[in-house]
Design a protein that fits this description.
heterodimer; A: about 325 residues; alpha/beta; 14 strands; B: about 400 residues; four-stranded antiparallel beta sheet; 8 strands
Chain lengths: ~325, ~400
């Protein structure tokens, strides 16, 4: 009900605000002195409030990186928790300046829903988790199973597609929130829980006995997760996109949160000099200070550090395909020059 | 005694041009505002590159629905998926209205009962349910009460083919076999005969003053004739038993826990309000009438049925209309416990399509239609009982 009211409010905002798109998100953020960043309602490792009430996680760190690059202060972020079905609408209506909340890059969203995707921050895929004592080892053995799933996501569609493609009768129980879906799975209402692999790992780590749950090997979909900005503000899209590339490139170039000051002062690598603003003015290309990446890396570190801090240390997730291209992964930052 | 109806004077009296002009201006401003809002929305949607219009309703939905009254596959269209949602909303609302009315009348009567225990139990029930948010009640029923049931493999078997588990309540599904239609027609005729006997008994009593057991006689006629027809047509109703296989029960009729929670929650919550309406209705009937009936030696049951309730319901109906409308709107809380009602399915469509304005408009149109129909029906009913003015 509360979400319904929120959704109504966002839709009303979409009706009432005229021509906000061309107003320039960069000016708006600078004027407000803060970045309104849409995050999830709580996914461990990605965006989740910690015991002090601060948002932490890979997605939250990208909010902070953008705030640091734009405003020079990573703490100037206003986190706006959004349910799955609100995330696209909140961006297209201008309620938030960007989202960084495990949103899958799809053609329909990118082209027909008033939003643009920036750059992929995590390559995920959908899978299933089942109780270990069910004794199944493959998703193909799940004919007749009841599956808990969250509404408003590509997950829901992939589940239906997978059942159709493999001739499995899967009975969905669709929940509004992730928490409700996980609880229903844990209580035995469903035989399986389906969502992105990374989140399955996150939720499994939260159970009293993680070994009682098995994540099945099948990855049934591609889920490239990328931050969203409103369609039509190219400068703002460039800013968010290049901050992400910068964070990924920093790992490739060996720039870390700890050594960034040294690197800026002493590095002789022209790629590092350009990125950190020691030579040239890459920040000027997108309307920011020349120290944009220096500020961002000082605040959150490079991609590898963000990953280790949020996903490896707490959830035990391997890098997998989210490794640098040189290490056999698919992370490939465009050249900053 | 007939009541003289007086009508409030209409504001549109001739000769009051100024008033008409000012009302015209207000109307024009309102319409202008609506028009502005509409065109502004259209412009904004186009500016942001968001599709608008209802053409998406024909496109393939692709979304799974767990509980549907009509055959559904993800290959069907968005429009059809939304229809599944409307039917689910209607189904749970209609059932909840019927059950909450029955329970509500019972609770209301119990509230004013001379039986101390019954009255107190009813009072505690009403105060508890009315003062808890419905969402909390729903969560409690769903996550505490129903989740405590066993896994399907250890399901509680009530009788052959009837199982209770945390995946739902399973019943045998009746199947029509050859001869079913003749049996159905025979059963309908038996029902009509039973009804006719009941009516005849009532008329006979009016004519002669002698009491015949009209209701029980009619029921007997219906049951005996139907049973005969069932045997003659060769037992044409088979059944498909639910069988546990693999993960879940297969076959049979299933009542899912999401539906059951929503239904139970709505019924318990609304019945508390209806109970209060009934209580206030009963207390509005003058005590003198009851005493008079008692003095004539009429039994308590007949006093309740023939004197009390007909008058009490007149007071009860208008307030209950509101509660029915609230019930229909409250059914949207289904989304919290995973029942695929109209709001849940519409929300999914928004998530996949981004066309929130259209879906919200459709939600509004459906709720408005349902509630206007309820209002119309209840007002008609109210007008009918008002004729019997004391």
């Amino acid at each position: 009900m509360r979400n319904l009211v929120k959704l109504g409010a966002i839709a009303a905002a979409a009706m009432a605000t005229a021509g906000a798109v061309s107003a320039g998100t960069l000016d708006k953020v600078r004027e407000a002195g803060e970045l309104a960043c849409g995050v999830s309602e709580g996914v461990p490792g990605f965006s989740n409030p910690n015991s002090d009430g601060d948002w932490v996680g890979l997605d939250a760190d990208f909010c902070r990186a953008v705030a640091a690059a734009v405003l020079g202060d990573a703490s100037k972020v206003r986190y706006v928790p959004l349910a799955s079905k609100q995330k696209v609408l909140a961006v297209s209506s201008g309620q938030v300046d960007m989202t960084s909340r495990t949103t899958t890059w799809t053609m329909k969203r990118d082209s027909a829903e008033g939003v643009d995707f920036t750059a992929v921050v995590y390559y995920d895929g959908q899978g299933f988790m089942v109780k270990s004592d069910a004794g199944i080892t493959s998703a193909k053995e799940m004919d007749g199973a009841t599956v808990c799933v969250t509404t408003g996501t590509t997950t829901e569609l992939n589940l239906a597609d997978y059942g159709r493609a493999n001739n499995l009768t899967l009975e969905p129980v669709v929940f509004e929130g992730k928490r409700e879906a996980v609880d229903a799975y844990a209580s035995g209402r469903c035989d399986a829980l389906t969502t992105d692999m990374s989140q399955l790992a996150a939720f499994r780590s939260g159970f009293a006995d993680p070994s009682a749950h098995t994540i099945l090997p099948e990855v049934i979909s591609k889920e490239p997760l990328a931050p969203l900005v409103a369609h039509g503000d190219n400068q703002w899209k460039d800013i968010v996109t290049w901050v992400i590339y910068g964070i990924i490139a920093a790992e490739e170039l060996g720039v870390t949160q700890a050594n960034v000051a040294d690197m800026a002062a002493t590095s002789t690598d022209p790629n590092i000099q350009r990125m950190l603003g020691s030579t040239g003015d890459t920040g000027g290309f997108i309307g920011l200070e020349s120290t944009w990446m220096f500020d961002a890396i000082s605040a959150v570190g490079n991609y590898g550090e963000i990953y280790d801090r949020n996903l490896t240390a707490t959830l035990g997730l391997e890098r997998g395909i989210n490794a640098q291209w040189k290490d056999g992964g698919v992370l490939y930052a465009m050249p900053i020059r | 005694m007939p009541m003289t109806k007086t009508r409030a004077k209409s504001g549109f009296a001739l000769g009051n041009i100024g008033s008409m002009a000012s009302q015209g201006v207000v109307l024009a401003v309102v319409l202008g505002f609506v028009y502005l809002l509409f065109t502004n929305t259209q412009e904004n949607l186009a500016l942001r590159g968001i599709e608008s219009g209802f053409t998406f309703l024909d496109k393939e939905a692709g979304l799974p629905i767990g509980d549907s009254l009509i055959a559904y596959t993800p290959m069907r269209s968005y429009g059809y998926a939304f229809l599944v949602g409307i039917l689910n909303t209607l189904f749970v609302s209609v059932l909840a209205i019927i059950l909450s009315t029955i329970l509500g009348v019972f609770v209301g009567v119990a509230r004013v009962s001379h039986n101390w225990l019954l009255a107190k139990v009813a009072a505690v029930y009403v105060e508890t349910l009315r003062n808890l948010p419905l969402l909390l009640t729903l969560f409690f029923i769903y996550t505490v009460v129903l989740a405590a049931l066993p896994h399907p493999r250890d399901a509680i078997q009530l009788v052959e083919g009837v199982y209770l588990s945390k995946r739902g309540f399973y019943l045998p599904r009746p199947l029509a076999e050859p001869g079913f239609w003749s049996f159905l027609i025979a059963a309908l005729i038996a029902f009509a005969l039973g009804l006719a006997f009941w009516r005849w008994a009532a008329l006979y009593k009016l004519r002669t003053g002698k009491t015949l057991p009209g209701f029980w006689g009619g029921l007997g006629i219906f049951i005996v004739l139907t049973a005969l027809a069932y045997l003659i047509t060769g037992r044409p109703v088979g059944s498909e038993l639910p069988v546990y296989a693999g993960f879940n029960f297969k076959g049979g009729l299933a009542m899912k826990p999401e539906f059951a929670s929503l239904l139970i929650g709505l019924v318990l919550y609304t019945a508390a309000y209806i109970g209060e309406n009934v209580r206030s209705g009963i207390q509005s009937v003058e005590a003198g009438q009851i005493e008079a009936a008692n003095a004539l030696g009429v039994s308590n049951a007949v006093v309740t049925r023939k004197v009390l309730l007909p008058q009490a319901l007149r007071v009860t109906i208008p307030a209950t209309t509101n509660d029915y409308a609230s019930l229909v709107k409250n059914s949207s809380l289904a989304v919290a416990i995973g029942y695929p009602d109209m709001v849940s399915i519409g929300g999914t469509i928004i998530g996949q399509n981004g066309q929130a304005v259209e879906i919200i408009a459709m939600w509004m149109a459906v709720y408005l239609t349902i509630n206007l129909i309820i209002s119309l029906g209840m007002n008609t009913l109210n007008a009918r009982v008002q004729h019997a003015e004391r």
